[in-house]
Design goal:
Order of helices and strands of chain A: EEHEEEHHHH
CATH superfamily of the largest domain in chain A: Beta-grasp domain
Strand content of chain A: 15-25%
CATH superfamily of one domain in chain B: Aldehyde oxidase/xanthine dehydrogenase, molybdopterin binding domain
CATH topology of the largest domain in chain A: Ubiquitin-like (UB roll)
Number of domains of chain A: 2
Strand content of chain B: 15-25%
CATH topology of one domain in chain B: Aldehyde Oxidoreductase, domain 4
Strand order of the largest sheet of chain A: 2-1-5-3-4
Distance between the termini of chain A: 51 Å
CATH architecture of the largest domain in chain A: Roll
Oligomer: heterodimer
CATH class of the largest domain in chain A: Alpha Beta
Largest sheet of chain B: 7 strands, mixed
Structural class of chain A: alpha+beta
Chain lengths: 158, 746
């Protein structure tokens, strides 16, 4: 099968790549664009480690075809910090020790950012339900919820 | 190294600085097993058995080898036959030799120019199987007429008359059981079964192997032990250990599941055959089908108790299956079962039986959760029957300093009573419960281990320090090691950087397991720092022209040890380091040793659950962990261990299990059907850290990583019994099981 050329925007940068028709956006990000922040934990949309935004919408990039990124805006964990200045959520995850192994952290940060853009003042329950698609096996989620809530408070008062 | 009774004024220990690997992990920069690529790299894939048990009659790889883009195909024919039986089992688990022993057992592998070609090539490999009868359940496997998974593998300790599937047997205990049961007012005997669970790390096994025909190789992989990978892979590949450089990537969770190899020898063999680097990454389905689940178990517990709650005798029979190869986890279960109790008469018996399931590998406190679940369930039932408070009964019988444990050792200072008392005094213990809610508790225990570690601590000329150690960081250990170095040297945490080295950069360290790293590597770091301090004192002494013995290290500086030594202003670490090239050369401290004195760990969990009487679904509504950490180096990461372990135990109790069909095929190899706890399933996990110093460590540190997975199983079962009136003796307590128990109760 012929490869498909794709022109897209990733973290604000215009990029072009070619991909196989069945290739996932996750594979294209990782293998063609060297953006390995998004991880493959399951490949079936169950773990959320590959979470990115596509035109502002939170998606599992393992369930999106790379070709669907044509003309779209893709956001990944690599685009969260502003040069050397961490996003409030990133700093909050460090301050609250909200990560251990860190493999789920990129996906959880992208998902949390999407949450706070939609709902700047979530309840703990809303945070937990929003992040229910992002598995973390290390932390038991306690410190993650606290880190998201602290970041939300800081972002509201900023 | 004994506990230092005099040191209490810590400057760094006990604070909560940001972890050194934190920024890389929140920006996506951290490199895990699947994140590295090499020029000329091939992509590999593994063909796996569709049968639970079958003889491999023939494998024809010729069509796959002829496909465009396929660069190498390997089967068991490409591997030797290691003399060492454990090594042979590990190799055979990576690539089946004569027969496949479980659904998902590897039979062939391909390296190709990309993943699409590799997958297509797998389909072109023809394997002729002759199906054999299979056995999945441990109790079935122990029967005389059970299909045999392997023959002739029973250890000498196994009594005559069992099925050849029974490979391991052990017994522990002391005292007169008959006399003890005769003195009891109440005897309860129950049988329990638990499903196999998976560690469930989010990062699948992944590696990048590069090996030349000269027997030299490099391996990048996610592992809990790069030295273990080196020894095992060098053994399988029949090369010298020095010629294989293993670099541990960042590790995306392990929990014991990355303390062996599953794919690394296959990648090395493919790379050697193809003459190019090979990346091999498991899919999630492969992780479930072919990497280490836990044992599944069948356990009988019998306990005698007097009316006042004194346990007079206790017995447990633990039948474990660690899958298709011999397995000693039953010994740890049999030793852990009654560890929280001070008993005059106790006996435990452990068996391992082979089944057609994947080879078990450690999962956080291996063997202990299922054993203690059974014991703590019976203790709770007896408390209910006798109308006794469950904390009081445990306090009455609790192991303490001087107790001869059920597995033989006599305990030194331990924190069990402290955790029980903290639980009883906590507001959670007496908080009101809502409708359909119940409260349960359970004790937990883990041995903790020491073992081998190598540490080098280099003092740089700008006054900073590098610590080089050999244990992959799975829970924040680089932060703890940096803190320990800073504390010992009297410098700031931000002046220290700790890295986990590859196998060529520092001496051997045992695998990151057994809750050993903060204790063992921490201890080696203390000794390496003290070595460096001695050297720095000698440098200052030389500059001052006085005896090195007359110089001591105080608050991050060398100073004369008394007025007779001479009058010189203190020299800081930075000042000594700055002139080190003029005073004898670079300065470094080292320590290599085999540590003992790890100090056992106890915890108590308190749990409220709510059971929906209509559906049988249960939800944890409040949870508090009490655990003795000895001394918490970085409290955030101690709390993280307590919370993470508790939630894994909650999953084990309520949802997680390997489900097999009649055909012996695993039916739920994915996160959709093997359901680990998600954020919305859970309440906050509160933690209370107790600090009862370990007498075997200068700061009193104990390992904390594993104990926390032990209590949730019984804590939840006990909460369910008290809240919903049903005592479940099979895990997981999934909604259908709970509902049928509720309906049977009427």
């Amino acid at each position: 099968m012929k490869s498909i050329p794709v022109s897209t925007t990733v973290n604000g940068d215009a990029v072009d790549f070619v991909c196989a028709p069945g290739e996932t956006l996750l594979d294209a990000l990782r293998n063609r664009l060297s953006l390995t922040g998004a991880k493959e934990g399951c490949g079936t949309g169950d773990c959320g480690a590959c979470s990115v935004t596509l035109n502002g919408r939170l998606v599992c990039s393992c369930l999106v075809l790379a070709a669907e990124a044509e003309g779209a805006e893709v956001g990944t964990v690599e685009g969260m910090a502003d040069h050397d200045k961490l996003h409030v959520l990133q700093q909050s995850f460090l301050d609250h020790a909200a990560l251990q192994c860190g493999i789920c952290t990129p996906g959880i940060l992208v998902a949390s950012k999407a949450l706070l853009e939609e709902n700047p003042e979530p309840t703990d329950e809303e945070v937990r339900y929003w992040l229910a698609g992002n598995l973390c096996r290390c932390t038991g989620y306690d410190k993650i919820v606290r880190a998201v809530q602290d970041a939300a408070a800081k972002m509201r008062s900023a | 190294m004994a506990f230092d009774e005099t040191k209490h004024d810590y400057k760094v220990i006990g604070t909560r600085p940001v972890r050194p690997d934190g920024i890389d992990k929140v920006t996506g920069r951290a490199l895990y097993g699947a994140d590295l690529s090499a020029p000329g790299m091939l992509t590999a894939a593994i063909l796996r058995s569709p049968h639970a048990h079958a003889k491999i009659v023939k494998i024809d790889t010729s069509k796959a080898e002829a496909m465009a883009g396929v660069k190498a195909v390997v089967t068991s024919r490409d591997f030797g036959l290691p003399e060492d039986q454990d090594l042979r089992d590990t190799q055979d688990n990576c690539m089946a030799r004569d027969k496949v022993l479980y659904d998902g057992h590897a039979v062939a592998a391909v390296a190709a120019i990309n993943a699409q070609v590799a997958k297509a090539a797998l389909k072109a490999i023809e394997v002729e199987y002759e199906k054999l009868p299979h056995v999945i359940d441990v109790d079935d496997a122990m029967k005389g007429d059970a299909p045999l998974v392997l023959e002739g593998r029973a250890l000498e300790t196994v009594p005559e008359g069992w099925s050849q599937n029974v490979t391991n047997y052990c017994e522990f205990g002391h005292g007169d059981l008959d006399d003890g049961f005769a003195r009891a007012d109440l005897i309860v005997e129950r049988s329990f079964k638990t499903g196999a669970t998976h560690q469930g790390y989010i990062e699948p096994h992944a590696c990048l192997a590069s090996m030349g025909p000269d027997g030299r190789g490099e391996l990048w992989c996610c592992t809990q032990g790069q030295y273990m990978v080196r020894e095992v892979c060098a053994g399988i590949m029949e090369i010298e250990a020095s010629q294989l450089k293993v670099t541990p990537s960042e590790i995306g969770g392990g929990f014991g599941g990355k303390t062996t190899v599953f794919i690394e020898p296959v990648a090395l063999a493919l790379s050697r055959k193809a003459g190019r680097p090979v990346k091999l990454v498991m899919t999630r389905e492969e992780v479930f089908r072919a990497s280490g689940p836990t044992i599944h178990s069948s356990t009988d517990v019998k306990i005698g108790m007097t009316k006042d709650g004194t346990i007079t005798a206790a017995r447990a029979d633990l039948r474990y299956s660690g899958g298709c190869y011999p397995n000693g986890t039953c010994e740890m279960g049999a030793q852990a079962a009654f560890a929280p109790y001070d008993l005059k008469a106790v006996r435990t018996y452990g068996w391992n039986a082979l089944t057609n399931r994947p080879k078990e590998i450690s999962y956080r406190a291996p063997g202990a959760p299922t054993a203690i679940y059974a014991v703590e369930s019976v203790v709770d039932e007896m408390c209910q029957k006798l109308g006794l408070d469950p904390v009081d009964v445990r306090l009455k019988n609790a192991a303490d300093k001087g107790t001869k444990s059920s597995y033989g050792v006599t305990f030194e200072d331990i924190g069990l009573k402290a955790t029980l008392e903290a639980a009883k005094a906590h507001p959670h213990y007496t908080a009101p419960l809502g409708p359909n809610q119940g409260r349960g508790l359970s004790c937990g225990f883990w041995f903790n281990f020491g073992g081998n570690a190598s540490v080098t601590l280099s003092v740089n000329t700008d006054g900073t320090v590098n610590v080089t150690e050999g244990n992959p960081d799975i829970g924040g250990s680089r932060a703890s090691i940096s803190m320990i170095a800073a504390e010992e040297l009297g410098i700031g945490y931000d002046r220290v950087r700790t890295i986990v080295a590859d196998t060529t950069s520092i001496g051997h360290s045992d695998t990151t397991d057994g809750s050993r790293v903060t204790f063992t590597v921490g201890l080696a770091t203390i000794k390496a720092a003290r070595d460096a301090k001695t050297k720095m004192c000698a440098r200052a002494a030389a500059l001052w022209g006085i005896d090195p013995e007359a110089v001591e290290w105080v608050d991050g500086a060398a100073q004369p040890s008394g007025p007779n030594a001479g009058k010189f202003p203190p020299m800081s670490l930075a000042e000594i380091a700055a002139v080190s090239f003029q005073t004898g050369g670079p300065i470094a401290g080292h320590h290599e040793s085999n540590a003992d004195g790890a100090g056992v760990s106890f915890g108590v969990h308190l749990c409220d659950i709510e059971v929906d009487p209509e559906t049988g679904a249960s939800k944890v509504v409040r949870y508090t962990v009490f655990q003795d950490a000895g001394k918490a180096i970085h409290p955030d990461y101690v709390e993280g261990q307590l919370q993470g372990g508790a939630v894994q135990g909650i999953g084990w109790a309520l949802n997680e299990e390997y489900i097999y069909g009649e055909d012996g095929i695993l039916q739920n190899p994915g996160f959709l059907d093997y359901r680990v706890p998600v954020a919305s399933d859970l309440p906050p996990i509160d933690t209370v850290i107790l600090e009862v110093p370990n007498p075997g460590h200068p700061y009193g540190v104990r390992g904390v990583g594993e104990t926390s997975i032990v209590p949730p199983l019984a804590a939840i079962a006990n909460a369910m019994s008290r809240g919903a009136g049903v005592r479940l003796t099979q895990l997981p307590m999934s909604p259908p099981r709970v509902l049928s128990a509720l309906m049977a109760k009427g």
